[in-house]
Amino acid sequence: MKPSDMENPERWSDDILAARFHEWQPDVARAFAQFQNGRREKQSFRRAWLWVAAALATSVSLAAFPSTRVFAQRCVSACLAGSSGVREFLTGGVSTTAPKNTFAKPGHRMAAPDFALTDASGRAVKLSDFRGKVVLLNFWATWCAPCGAEVPLLVGFQREYRDRGLQVLGVSLDEDGWKSVRPYIEKRQVNYPVMIGNGDIARAYGGLESVPTTVIVDKTGRIAATHLGLCRKDEYEADIQAVLNE
Questions:
Q1: Which residues pair with 125 in a beta bridge?
Q2: Cα 204 to Cα 112: distance, rounded to the nearest angstrom
Q3: C or N: which end of the chain has fewer Cβ atoms within 10 Å?
Q4: What is the largest CA-CA distance in the chain?
Q5: Which segment, 12-16, 85-89, 228-232, is predicted with the most confidence on average?
């Protein structure tokens, strides 16, 4: 880490994680869990173990310094999501979540909390405005490397399924709001509305203890599926298509 990086540890950590996820996506989030289950081939097993060992060593050393603790926490969250004991030890209790998907049948769905937020153009956006469509509601942050890895998927879903009745919405949880979010979405040519979230919407959706968190809302405004953590394209598409076909 260069002295200049000490002035902005979050940007430094983001660059490192982004580079790692480019190399390992999409299996990085599941590497440790697959290692535990013993279902990977020998070569993949060695790669996963080396990645876990490197992440452990890096995170332990970095966690000793306040300026780099943020990288240690995010590395554990992104790379070691399969081990709650390791996460708790390295992050000092910071909550992280392994990739997890749930799907509710129509008769067992809860209503999605409505909200009214402003998008990048200043237009008011309400979840209830999209009643009759299937909504993929993605809670994310610019500093979150797994969130960044999902952006191209969401852009593709909006383009591919828009005419079938899907609407992607992004809610950023960045503390500095549009200062970080606007250049981020412009650079990546995000083709769906993005808003800045607040404490009220976070509480309404269960606290949102980790990002990315993605909720699929059916045509009647009920939560059909929830995806926690970095998920594969086919996992999203299976739920999107199922809800669109209802």
A1: 117
A2: 9
A3: C
A4: 57
A5: 228-232
